[in-house]
Specification:
The complex is a heterodimer of chains A (284) and B (369). Chain A is an all-alpha fold. Chain A contains 14 helices and no strands. Chain A has two domains: 50 residues, no CATH class; 205 residues, MetI-like fold. The chains are: A mainly alpha (284), B alpha+beta (369).
């Protein structure tokens, strides 16, 4: 009896430490975003005079008038937010689509082997910094600098390999009999694809999509180098702390805002995520 | 080509790399017939089926469906349907949607689809499952859905690839009967692939026994069972398998005798010597089915009961005779005990004599009927 209580207590203790350990930085971020300027450097967890000023700053930098020095470099957060939404969503759709067809082909038709697909991992085997220079040079000549199309193409290209590998696993697990049965009952190859394969592979498409969306959403290095005025959210968040000074509270508010959308999306599709991660069990 | 012929295969050969999966096969299947391809795994029966369906291309030979050469025709245009051993049902669709699939892709009017789906569901006793998701069904229901899905598209030919192999034994028996009933009612032409000889014999109008990509013997179940062409068919068909004893045939005092290295078996008291003459002295395998021997006091072979098995409504005695063990059916209630000495008599009409070297059948029955 005593033993069990002790074990339970110990378990709870470990759990609490783990949760506190991971959550405290987030709590600090949340608390900081509600603190007034004077309190930014105080490590207390609860703001003494909670304020929405930081959030107002995000949406209209001129409204408060107290940080005039920064307003020149700061645009309202709505711009970067919508840019990032467009970039991430479009890049995800492109990468998942290309990835799906590549994976389907590799899985169903005798491709020259996994060795070819292996090369799609190339962009992921080098540190991204190594190919920043050529990208900058060529994007300049292609008018893709400071252009969201540039970022869309770049993100789609560098993440498509994830889509391929995730989806290949899913498509490999789909018995070819389902396709053959559909074909024999008179379905065209396109009907087989859209009525049989894609609905069955849907969890895989969702998993790959979410993964790529989050990568595009949080990417900073290329965004920083390739944009100037049309910055995405990740760059915008970094801009609140500059050589001129550090708007810690505003940055915390921006960070919180930028983490809410992935959180909401993740929550909405978690049902698919679970079926996605357990898809392998269908066969057993 | 007669209009009775639904499918005709002409010298069809299929290779996978160096392996010849199907080796120069020819046969015809007639309208309304249930034709089985029977053989051990790897004998090429499934490949043959897939060639007929158009899922595989033969390397040589031609395939005709209703007189039309379909060798190069894509699978979806052949109007042939296939029920697979497994994964027959789309998991993301309801039973209704599954059955309706083939009609929906043809864009038939909704009312007509509905009518056909419900009819098929009725025939296969699926009416109460129509709203279930495909992935949630048991295997036997899945196979029934697969058959219903094929029936609604009204194929010229229904192919079944071991559809009952994975179904529970009890349910399998019932489904076999249902399948035969449906086949008879709808007069569907079916080709049935199975490795289960009992299933093939029970269901089929005709059976083709396959081995290593070739058809060894083709005929009605009775012919296959009663008059196997060689040792392979003789042992593959029938359960328990045919009893086999190796030796040399000789005639002693007008009795047919099988001589093994250490013993002599008297097979039969009366023999028509002119039939047998040519076989004397050659190395043979003599076979007889467990039901073609009986235990009786005037039997010519004596042995000891080693083991008694009960199979359904009969007993099988495993009788050790000299070095060999043979199985003989007796009544369920016959009072035998293990260790008992018994005499058996083999029906001389039902003795199968095979050439040892080739397995080829030399003779059946050592006295004429």
């Amino acid at each position: 009896m005593l033993r069990r209580i002790l074990t339970n207590a110990l378990m709870w203790l470990v759990l609490i430490i783990a949760v506190v350990w991971t959550v405290i930085p987030v709590m600090w971020m949340i608390s900081l975003s509600f603190k007034t300027y004077g309190e930014w450097r105080t490590p207390s967890l609860l703001p003494r005079n909670p304020t929405l000023d930081n959030y107002i700053m995000l949406f209209s930098p001129q409204a408060l008038g107290i940080f005039i020095a920064y307003t020149a470099i700061l645009e309202p957060i709505v711009g970067p937010l919508s840019r990032t939404l467009i970039i991430s969503a479009t890049a995800t759709v492109i990468a998942v689509m290309i990835g799906f067809f590549t994976a389907y082909g590799a899985s169903r038709y005798n491709s020259p082997g996994p060795f070819t697909l292996f090369f799609t991992l190339l962009t992921r085997m080098l540190p991204p910094a190594t190919f920043v220079t050529p990208i900058v040079i060529y994007f300049t000549t292609l008018y893709l600098i400071d252009n969201i199309i540039g970022l869309i193409l770049l993100y789609a290209a560098t993440t498509v390999t994830y889509a391929i590998w995730i989806l290949k696993g899913f498509i490999d697990a789909i018995p070819v009999e389902w396709e053959e049965a559909a074909l024999l009952e008179g379905a065209s190859p396109l009907q087989v694809l859209f009525k049989v394969i894609i609905p069955i592979a849907r969890p895989g498409l969702v998993v790959a999509g979410l993964f790529i969306f989050l990568m595009a959403w949080t990417e900073l290095l290329f965004a920083l180098v390739l944009t100037n005025l049309n910055v995405p959210l990740s760059v915008q968040v970094s801009k609140y702390v500059t050589a001129v000074g550090a708007l810690w509270g505003v940055q915390a508010a921006a960070a919180l805002l930028s983490s809410i959308i992935p959180l909401v999306i993740g929550y909405l599709i978690q049902r698919h995520l679970i079926t996605g991660f357990t898809f392998g069990l269908v066969r057993g | 080509m007669s209009s009775r012929v639904v499918v005709k295969l002409e010298n069809v050969t299929k290779r996978f790399g160096d392996v010849v999966a199907v080796n120069n096969i020819s046969f015809e299947v007639y309208r309304g017939e249930l034709f089985s391809l029977l053989g051990p795994s790897g004998c090429g029966k499934t490949t043959t089926l897939r060639i007929i369906a158009g899922l595989e291309q033969p390397d040589e030979g031609r395939v005709y469906i209703e007189g039309v050469d379909v060798t190069k025709m894509p699978a979806r245009e052949r109007k042939v349907c296939l029920v697979f051993q497994e994964y027959a049902v789309f998991p993301h669709m309801s039973v209704y949607e599954n059955i309706a699939f083939g009609l929906k892709v043809k864009k038939l009017p909704k009312a007509e689809i509905d009518k056909k789906v419900k009819e098929a569901a009725e025939i296969l006793e699926l009416s109460s499952y129509l709203n279930y998701k495909g992935g949630r069904l048991g295997l036997s229901e899945q196979q029934r859905v697969a058959i219903a899905r094929c029936l609604v598209v009204e194929p010229k030919l229904l192919l079944l690839d071991e559809p009952l192999t994975l179904v529970d034994a009890k349910v399998r028996e019932r489904m076999r009967r249902e399948l035969k009933r449906i086949q008879r009612e709808l007069e569907t032409t079916m080709i049935y692939v199975t490795h289960d000889q009992l299933e093939a014999l029970m269901l089929s109008d005709r059976v083709a026994v396959m081995r290593s990509g070739r058809i060894v013997q083709m005929g009605t179940p009775e012919e296959i069972y009663d008059n196997p062409k060689d040792l392979f068919v003789a042992t593959f068909v029938g359960s328990p398998t045919m009893n086999l004893v190796e030796g040399v045939l000789e005639l002693e005092e007008n009795k047919l005798v099988l001589k093994t290295p250490s013993y002599k078996y008297i097979l039969s008291k009366e023999v028509e010597s002119n039939i047998i003459q040519s076989l004397l002295g050659s190395e043979v395998v003599v076979g007889f089915r467990p039901e073609d021997a009986e235990v009786r006091n005037d039997g010519v072979l004596e042995g000891t009961v080693k083991l008694i098995e009960i199979v359904e409504d009969r007993k099988i005695l495993h009788i050790k005779i000299n070095e060999d063990e043979v199985r003989v059916f007796v009544d369920l209630l016959a009072p035998f005990t293990e260790g008992q000495k018994v005499k058996i008599r083999i029906n001389p009409l039902k003795l199968h004599i095979f050439e040892k070297k080739t397995g080829r059948k030399l003779l059946k029955g050592v006295v004429s009927g």
